[in-house]
Amino acid sequence: MVISTMKEDDVAEGCCARGASNERELVLATGTASNPNGDQQSEPDSMLGALQAAMFNWVADWGGVAVDCVAAVGDLTLFAWRTLVWTFGKLPKRETLLPSFYQVGVMSLPVVALTGTFIGMVLAVQSYYQFRELGLETRLGAVINMSLVRELGPVLAATMLAGRVGSAMAAELGTMRVTEQIDALTSMGANPIHFLVVPRVLAMLLLIPALTVMADFMGFVGGYFYSVIIIGIDKHFYLYNSQVFVGSWDIFCGLFKSVFFGGVIALVSCHQGFYCTAGAEGVGKAATAAFVYSFVMILVIDLILNIGLDRVYMSLWPDSIQSIGGG
Amino acid sequence: MHARLETDDAQSIIEVNDLKVQFEGQTVLRDIGLSVPRGQTLAVIGESGCGKTVLLKSLIGLIRPSKGEVLFDGRDINKLKEREMTRQRIRFGFVFQNAALFDSMTIGQNISFPLKQHTDKPLSEIRDIVFQHLKEVGLPESIVWKKPAELSGGMRKRVGLARALVLKPDVVLYDEPTTGLDPIMSDVINELILRTRSKYPVTSIVVTHDMRTAQKVADRLVMMYPAVRLKEDEPQILYDGRPEEVEDSRDQRVTQFVRGEAGQRIEEMGAYIGS
After folding, report:
1. What ipTM score was computed for the predicted complex, to two decimals?
2. Residues of chain B below pLDDT 50
3. Which residue of B has its CA nearest to A183?
């Protein structure tokens, strides 16, 4: 029932009525309705009744959350599917693509570079003393750059973009929804998904790897600056270790993951904006939800992809782990 | 069935049958039946929240009905394929309540948007059409470089009208065209609605709660009433007839609206306040 309501809304592109919350209220109402029955009976029975009511409420609460989750995932999947169909169906015009590319790529460059630089330096600060205890401070290059390229560069660049670009997308599309601009687009025979969502998703998908490279590079510069210039680790060994340990597979992993992060940020944020509820509050909620959901999705996808990529690595180079252990 | 469709086609451009729209279980429109002949200017009046805008948006498929059908030129608009729906939609011009101009674009880009989307006209021709439409709504050419935020409400509304007319639509839908404007600007808009109609062979549907607009521009007046205030068997359309005869309606709810009297609502308000 929930799914069918959702589909209708989705197709209608009109109002953002959600079936799920109603469903939940209904379940909650039936849960609390059993309460008075329990109170009217004798004491042990009323205890039992209260306990029963509490149980019902608990089940209803979690049931409601589960229903909401399923509805939200279904909703997002349909949205993503429609975006995909439009992306491959007809590429938007250059003049609609360029502003999105500019917003996502050029405008995010400074903030991503800054993030990268600081991660690099912080990693150096954090790991230096521990590695010095072991007499392995020249290995710092390997540690810093490996963590950067594989994990922190892509994830923190994506987080930064979710905050900077994702919330802006949700707020922009949300305002367009609230001020009927999305309806105006539709009424003029322009598909809003094609016109508003596809350029943003494409910009994110194509530019996030470039921005991740930027974060990685600036992280490398930051790490090098702190380790070599401030702490004074030998430049040759620092660079040599970086080169030996960080392979092209690691760089590939980071960039590969970043594409997924980019896609998810754009889709989640556009979806939040697209089905924004009325008023300033609705827009605010959409912007917040866009960041929070994007971030959660980034973490979940990161875990899943890391597991997957490790499997691939093992099957491609089964001897590699032993060789590192041996060397 | 087919013969019936053809006669519909000849007489009425829009036909609404048994329309029902619900949001989150709340019924906004029910049992709406309406037939709009080609070339007519229909004013839909009613208090805020009675579903006028929802009706207007249902006509071009922006809101899908829970039940019933909307026939445009004899074809159910909600059953059309995406491409065909787009083709039919651009035969409508929609003037939104707050103009709904794209605020990331300049006025020039806003007005030329439908042309760029649906025609292959060269830029010079598009520019001429934009200037011509600006002139028709009484705005200077110099505003094409401005952003919507830099214009006053009345100017934005006129730009919205220019944008709606740029593809020479068969039907123009006005959503509260004079709401939020001063009396003089309201009359300018009324005059523009009349002028549009004398200049182009359009069918117009004007949703408004401004009686002055309704009386001035319409050939036919329809009054709607909020579904929640009605009994089960009462129709949602309280009046359907000539604008000059609306004052003589025997329904008290109609005359109260036309004269702008609160009537029993005052008592309801008293009940809320507890006095």
Report:
1. 0.87
2. 1-9
3. B62
